[in-house]
């Protein structure tokens, strides 16, 4: 347990896929192996994001998976656990656990069941979590994903939270797909130590040029080294070429539902069929769709290096 504030996390993070067994229980050993592989490729770990099937995981399961990572020696400073839920006590418990573990920050969805809630209501929710956790080490990264949550986070709400909790409101993952919104966040709040992470590597090159903090993107799960290379490059021409290559891979995965598609690819290259398992209501790719996906990826020259390590 860390007693000091961890350094700000930057760069490329994976919303880590959660492997399940055929009994639909989380596979802790494979989860740890996947996280280790991602770290070796230079990625950070935004565990319990959308692509982690976090909404299908219980609070106890999230805690248990986090503990498995810590016990395996994964540095907590590489972790940005997703802690936002609809139930305030659950969010507080998950957030407190992450802070006490020494995580670099937490990625916090707004409560997403009730629609058309006011900024006052959202401010009260985030404020209540921060006050109940009551720890100066807490770094909250807001999760703006209106297409899934149907609960957008306005610039006015962010400004209000920053004024009330400077230093604690550390940044945002913007999965809106709207570059103008991401750019507005960088320009309006970047000088206040507010870090903006686009929710797809598609925007990474533009984010770097504008002063963004990296990206938190689904396909980091399967293509980490290539996406990390964009972040690390200091040559604009090289970055553009790397960006085009990463975009071409992402477009192939987007021809299928992303979570089952990524899991199918890992299953194919690792030889572990269990990797195809998703929790209902999601369904695995059928054999034809999976074969078509793999063929497209292979024709594009894509493969998952050292995939046996994910098994």
Automatic annotation (TrEMBL):
PANTHER family: BLR3884 PROTEIN, DIHYDRODIPICOLINATE SYNTHASE. InterPro entries: Aldolase_TIM (IPR013785), DapA-like (IPR002220). This is Dihydrodipicolinate synthase family protein. Belongs to the DapA family. SMART domains: DHDPS. The keyword Electron transport does not apply. Keywords: Lyase.
């Amino acid at each position: 347990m860390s007693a000091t504030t961890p350094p700000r996390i930057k760069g490329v993070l994976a919303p880590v896929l959660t492997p399940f067994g055929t009994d639909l229980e989380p596979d802790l050993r494979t989860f740890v192996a996947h996280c280790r592989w991602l770290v070796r490729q230079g990625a950070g770990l935004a565990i319990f994001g959308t692509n982690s099937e976090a909404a299908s995981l219980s609070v106890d399961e999230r805690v248990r998976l986090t503990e498995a990572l810590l016990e395996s020696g994964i540095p907590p400073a590489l972790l940005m656990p997703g802690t936002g839920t609809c139930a305030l006590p659950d969010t507080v418990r998950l957030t407190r656990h992450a802070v006490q573990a020494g995580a670099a920050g937490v990625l916090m969805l707004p409560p997403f069941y009730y629609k058309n809630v006011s900024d006052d209501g959202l401010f009260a929710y985030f404020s209540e979590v921060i006050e109940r956790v009551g720890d100066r080490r807490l770094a909250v990264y807001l999760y703006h994903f209106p297409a899934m949550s149907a609960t957008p986070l306005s610039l006015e709400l962010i400004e209000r939270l920053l004024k009330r909790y400077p230093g604690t409101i550390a940044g945002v993952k913007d999965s809106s797909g709207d570059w103008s919104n991401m750019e507005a966040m960088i320009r309006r709040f970047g000088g206040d130590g507010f870090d903006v992470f686009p929710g797809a590597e598609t925007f990474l090159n533009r984010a770097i040029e504008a002063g963004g903090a990296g990206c938190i993107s689904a396909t980091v799960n399967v293509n980490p080294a290539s996406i990390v290379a964009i972040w690390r490059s200091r040559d604009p021409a090289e970055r553009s070429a790397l960006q085009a290559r990463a975009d071409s891979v992402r477009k192939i995965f987007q021809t299928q539902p992303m979570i089952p598609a990524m899991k199918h690819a890992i299953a194919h290259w690792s030889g572990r069929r269990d990797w195809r398992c998703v929790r209902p209501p999601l369904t695995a790719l059928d054999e034809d769709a999976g074969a078509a996906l793999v063929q497209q990826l292979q024709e594009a020259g894509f493969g998952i290096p050292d995939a046996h390590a994910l098994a």
